[in-house]
Design a protein that fits this description.
- The protein has about 525 residues and is α+β, with helices and mostly antiparallel strands.
- The chain folds into three domains: about 200 residues, no CATH class; about 50 residues, no CATH class; about 220 residues, hypothetical protein PF0899 domain (hypothetical protein PF0899 fold), CATH 3.30.2320.10.
- Helices cover about 20% and strands about 30% of the residues.
- The strands form four sheets. Strands 1, 2, 3, 4, 5, 6, 7, 8, 9, 10 and 11 form an eleven-stranded mixed sheet that branches. Strands 16-25-21-17-20-19-18 form a seven-stranded mixed sheet, sandwiched between helices. Strands 12, 15, 22, 23 and 24 form a five-stranded mixed sheet that branches.
- Strand 3 and strand 4 form a beta hairpin.
- It starts with a strand and ends in a 5-residue tail after the last strand.
Length: about 525
């Protein structure tokens, strides 16, 4: 079970009671939101609220900062709507002020995942979960979820005389802002005229350069209070402290150093690793029975079946990260999610290199050396020789070709005598394949895979394979975490077990390029 944090969108404010009401999460709509664990959507009826009175309203998912409690909830066709009573504490009052100033402009749920399933579009669909808490947050994710009302308690008559809205103002307040579905009065009372109370005024932001600098540093280190200070100060810095405009940090992370793709593994067959042992065996036929023409009363052809056993060695692929506990405690949950994603990418790269190396090692070298630059005729000849070799040795057809990025570029540049591209074909007469701007394509009837771990144009920079001749056996990926009390650090290990089986002897299941240079 994992805890999932889903953030809603911005809020609208009207001040009458110390209550916050609105849609906290969409369900059954297919809407996808960005979470600490990736892209998630909720199936209809997937979230259970055992006792609404036990659900606390927190600030920024910090269990040490409660600001209110749920007093009602309702499940509708498009999601869950809820009403919260704000605490009369200073924290509750501050939450109302920050909301009315549109500084803390969203809601976020914390849910414990019970079950989920992957979707065809690449995100995860939660089918069962328990609501643990709801928080006021600054950054939104779901675009349809919106707080419909934030109402502060009306000011005492002797302190402030509330101003009733005019008829036209009331009509504006009653206009639904997001949802076409009518909002019931029992849940949010959005249809009732609201009163703009003057009980609370915006706190004055101290924009002293030293204070601003201190909060800028603390915000960089993950201090949420400092981030809120910078957000509040942003409206005054350009006029009161010219030049001290805070720099926004997006949750988007740019990564051009790793990928989760495994093209060489995609080019062959895969299987599940046996549950125990560091070596396993696969029976392989060494000699088969024969049948021959026999004369009358002649002897039967008698060739005995022989079975040999292929030994396959299991290897562990593991990596780790060591970081200070402050990084985990005082930064956005997106940090740990991105860390896991980067470690998964590293695992994918290591296992792909292991498989690609085994395929190259188990490949027959082309007897015809090719001098670069080569042309379409030489390419067709290479594929023909590869197909012949693989079928002769395995009685199976070639199914794919793995190429380096450089060779991929060379193939895209091949043209006919009229300078028409051969493999990015716009006309039927040149439809020899589809080698486009993609890691997948086709080449003379074979599936094309561009492998980032292959380099240059040396021997083996192009390998034709038969899928069934190689199999990658893999265990589920695992994770270890250890807290080092003495140093205040956290170790996270990411690992798994895998084994590559070259099933056809005598290098018969693959055929590789031979560079004459």
């Amino acid at each position: 079970m994992e805890t999932l944090y889903i953030e809603a969108t911005s809020i609208e404010c009207s001040e009458e009671r110390r209550e916050i009401s609105g849609k906290i999460v969409p369900m059954g709509t297919g809407e996808v939101g960005n979470t600490n664990l990736g892209a998630y959507a909720f199936a209809a009826g997937s979230i259970e609220i055992a006792d609404p009175s036990k659900i606390k309203l927190l600030s920024q998912h910090d269990m040490k900062k409660p600001v209110g409690r749920m007093i009602a909830s309702e499940v509708r066709e498009d999601g869950i709507y809820a009403t919260f009573k704000l605490s009369r504490s200073q924290a509750g009052t501050d939450a109302l002020i920050m909301a009315s100033e549109n500084l803390v402009s969203g809601l976020s749920i914390g849910a414990e995942i019970i079950s989920s399933k992957p979707s065809k579009n690449g995100h995860t669909v939660v089918t069962a979960a328990k609501l643990k808490e709801v928080s006021l947050v600054t950054e939104p994710a779901f675009k349809s979820a919106e707080v419909l009302e934030i109402a502060a308690e009306a000011a005492p008559a002797e302190a402030v005389e509330p101003t009733l809205p005019t008829e036209s103002e009331t009509e504006v307040e009653n206009t639904p802002t997001v949802e076409a579905t009518p909002v019931e009065a029992a849940a949010v009372e959005a249809a009732a005229p609201t009163i703009k109370a003057m009980a609370y005024t915006a706190p004055r932001i101290d924009t002293n350069p030293a204070v601003f600098l201190e909060n800028s540093i603390r915000a960089q280190l993950g201090d949420e209070s400092a981030r809120q200070y910078l957000a509040a100060a942003s409206d005054t810095t350009t006029t009161e402290v010219a030049g001290l405009v805070p720099t926004r940090q997006l949750t988007e992370i740019i990564n051009n150093k790793s990928t989760a793709g495994r093209p060489s593994i995609d080019a062959i067959s895969t299987g599940t690793l046996p549950d125990a042992g560091f070596k396993f065996q696969i029976p392989r036929v060494k000699a088969v029975p024969t049948v021959a023409a026999a004369a009358e009363k002649g002897a039967f052809s008698d060739t005995q079946v022989e079975i040999e056993y292929l030994d396959v060695t299991v290897a562990k692929y593991a990596g780790m990260q060591l970081f200070d506990v402050e990084v985990l405690d005082r930064t956005s949950p997106a940090f740990f999610a991105e860390l896991q994603s980067l470690m998964a990418d590293a695992y994918a790269k290591a296992t792909n290199v292991a498989v690609r190396t085994a395929i190259q090692t188990g490949a027959t070298a082309d007897g015809t050396a090719i001098t670069l630059p080569w042309d379409g005729a030489e390419m067709a000849g290479f594929i023909a020789r590869a197909s012949d070799s693989i079928y002769t040795n395995t009685l199976r057809f070639a199914t794919g070709v793995i190429v380096s990025p450089t060779q991929w570029s060379n193939i895209m540049g091949m043209v006919d005598s009229s300078n028409r591209p051969l493999f990015i074909a716009a006309q039927p007469q040149n439809a020899a394949g589809n080698v486009s701007q993609s890691l997948r394509g086709s080449l003379l009837g074979l599936d094309l895979y561009v492998d980032y771990s292959l380099t240059g144009v040396a021997d083996g920079s192009i390998v034709v394979v038969n899928r069934e001749s190689f199999t990658w056996y893999e265990s589920p990926r695992l994770q270890l975490r250890a807290d080092k009390v003495g140093t205040g650090q956290v170790e996270v290990g990411y690992y798994g077990y895998g084994a590559i089986a070259t099933k056809v002897p005598s290098a018969g299941g693959a055929f590789k390029f031979n560079n004459a240079a």
